[in-house]
Amino acid sequence: MKDTLFKIYKSISPSLVKKIIPIIDFSRKLKNKPPIPLREKLAEIDYPHLIGKTILLHGVSVGEIMSLENLIKKIKELFPSVNLVITTGTVTGQELAKKKYSSYSEFITYFPLDVYETVETFLEKINPSVILIAETELWPNFSYCAKEKNIPLYIINGRISDKSYPSYLRLKSFFKFILSCYTGIFAQSELDKNRFMELGANIGTVEVMKNLKFEIEKKTCDIDLEPENSKVIIAGSTHKGEDSIVLDAFKKLKSDMPDLKLILAPRHLTRLDEINDLLQNYNFRYGFRTKEETFKNCDIIVLDTLGELSKIYSIVDVAFIGGSFNNTGGHNPLEATVYSVPTISGPSIKNFRDIYSILEREKASFVVKNKDEFYSILKKLLSDNDFYNKTKENCKNCFENQQGALEFILNKLKSIL
């Protein structure tokens, strides 16, 4: 059965894809999405002539590309003569990769569509010495073609979500065939390791490496907002509609905690006029970071600067992570968790769902359904010292338990190269 399925799948041609893509593009246009970069994804572009060994590193979208930052920088530091080619699957991932990693890589392009002829062309042009695929990108033609060409192929930071696992199990024999093409599968956790093996991966190829997304370094904070002995909440990377949810909760809490302070950090500084107008509806003293105002004379400080949010998390008590009470999909809670700061997010967390699943499992973060739940958890964290201290300890333990992934991969690369 699996052989028949694969033969049918392998027979898909670039010419057939070219007939189908315009239909998909029309649907994307209706949703205001950009067209698929077909020529690049069919490997019909010019590629650089790379001399020497090459590492091909793939992260499908924004979350994966962000998680690879430290690895990319360390690869160029430890293997300066090795070429680095980075691929992504999405337009947003491609834009981010080019913005962040152009100076670290020899070439950034799209991962090829999983058409056998296309994959073969792509691998011949890039000629990688080793391929590292972040998380779970199980492409039959790509993996089979890499094995045919004897190119070491690895899954790094591997995971299989609760949502995907039942679907994969129903096609176990097919995925067993795909997983047999991988030289190594390095999973985030014992749970993920067991799931890969249940799907048919060879026990000798699967190891636990922990999670690259937790490889975040603490930053030294040189900011003094003079909170004295007050507790401080931060609402980080807020989007339209979220500031009022935070301000309403803050207003209710201030009646019992008059010394409570708040930092509002909008995701986009173009919203500052909107936030200023909103704050005038509340009876709070507020100021702006760019004017060097502090909590000495303010209840609220608006963080209207660039590049300070990640370090200012180190001086707060509780963090709300924005982009989670709308359809944005949330932002990275680990920027706060690295400082053992408990985080609260709304229900929209698709961009970092895997991170939240770990944090929630360890009781280090809270994902709430609505503004009432947000207020309830926020109040408990600020008023129940035992609950708060336990949550902080959970943050610390969770972070420590997940680290070590970067060193693991670098050691593997040393032995491979």
Structural account:
- The chain is an alpha/beta fold and 417 residues long.
- The protein folds into two domains: 24-215 and 403-416, Rossmann fold; 232-401, Glycogen Phosphorylase B (Rossmann fold), CATH 3.40.50.
- The protein is 43% helix and 15% strand.
- It contains 19 helices and 14 strands.
- The strands form two sheets. It has a seven-stranded parallel sheet, sandwiched between helices.
- Helix 16 (353-361) links the parallel strand 13 (343-345) and strand 14.
Separation of the first and last Cα atoms: 37 Å
In CATH, the architecture of the largest domain is: 3-Layer(aba) Sandwich
Strand content: 5-15%
Write down the Rg.
Answer: 24 Å
Query: Helical stretch count?
Result: 19
CATH class of the largest domain: Alpha Beta
Give me the secondary-structure topology.
Elements: H1 2-10, H2 14-30, H3 38-41, E1 54-58, H4 62-67, H5 69-78, E2 83-88, H6 91-101, E3 107-110, H7 116-126, E4 130-134, H8 140-148, E5 153-158, H9 165-170, H10 172-179, E6 184-187, H11 190-198, E7 206-208, E8 232-238, H12 242-254, E9 261-266, H13 272-279, E10 286-288, E11 300-302, H14 309-312, E12 318-321, H15 334-337, E13 343-345, H16 353-361, E14 365-367, H17 371-383, H18 385-402, H19 405-416
Parallel strand pairs: 1-2, 1-4, 2-3, 4-5, 5-6, 6-7, 8-9, 8-12, 9-11, 10-11, 12-13, 13-14
